[in-house]
């Protein structure tokens, strides 16, 4: 695990299973229909149970790309799930804007709901095909910029499923924050 302090907040990178996180909220890489699915979305729905889908269907009619919505955590350790819809990668500059927006809107949901700790997955880097080497700097820079002016969030952790993804996030963090001892 790597940890970096930004003002009074902490940004961490760890390798693991986001469904096992005990932060107040976890961020799910959702689809725009909020219909569950494969990858991390499917894993979160399976681990969290049917209450999550029931809440999504009762309160939301989808979610546009680049945005996010909040539900309870169901059977997960996390109290909340932030369902963030990242872009399907197509190589367009719009992809980066949408990915940045999905992270930013998730962080804003934390602030609005007094959530002090949140764990992100690597949004859009699985089934949606976003190259992790391109996605990692966007995710980290967006988070660092937000934490500089939002000390109410005490912990943001990126929980990265495999070694390749973890290494890409570590490389991005070292480039963005050179000279920082990790």
List the helices and strands and how they pair.
Layout: E1 2-6, E2 9-15, E3 25-30, H1 39-48, H2 50-59, E4 68-72, E5 80-85, H3 93-112, E6 117-120, H4 132-149, E7 155-160, H5 163-176
Parallel strand pairs: 2-7, 3-5, 3-6, 6-7
Antiparallel strand pairs: 1-2, 4-5
Helix pairs in contact: 3-4, 4-5
Task: Please provide a written account of the structure.
The chain has a 7-stranded mixed β-sheet with strand order 1-2-7-6-3-5-4, sandwiched between helices. The protein is an alpha/beta fold and 182 residues long. The chain is built from 5 helices and 7 strands; from the N terminus they run E-E-E-H-H-E-E-H-E-H-E-H. Helix 3 packs parallel to helix 4 and helix 4 packs across helix 5. The chain starts with a strand and ends in a 6-residue tail after the last helix. It has a single domain, classed as Leucine Aminopeptidase, subunit E, domain 1, CATH 3.40.220.
Looking at CATH, the homologous superfamily is: Leucine Aminopeptidase, subunit E, domain 1
| Helix/sheet category | alpha/beta
The CATH class name reads Alpha Beta
Mean pLDDT: 95
CATH topology: Leucine Aminopeptidase, subunit E, domain 1
* Strand residue content: 15-25%
| Secondary-structure element pattern, one letter each | EEEHHEEHEHEH
Supply Rg. Answer: 15 Å
Main pleated sheet: 7 strands, mixed
Please give the CATH architecture.
Answer: 3-Layer(aba) Sandwich
Apparent shape: globular
Spatially, the strands of the biggest sheet line up as 1-2-7-6-3-5-4
**Helix percentage:** 25-40%
Task: Report the total helices.
Answer: 5
Number of strands: 7
How many domains? The number is: 1
Low-confidence stretches are none
Span of the ends, CA to CA = 9 Å
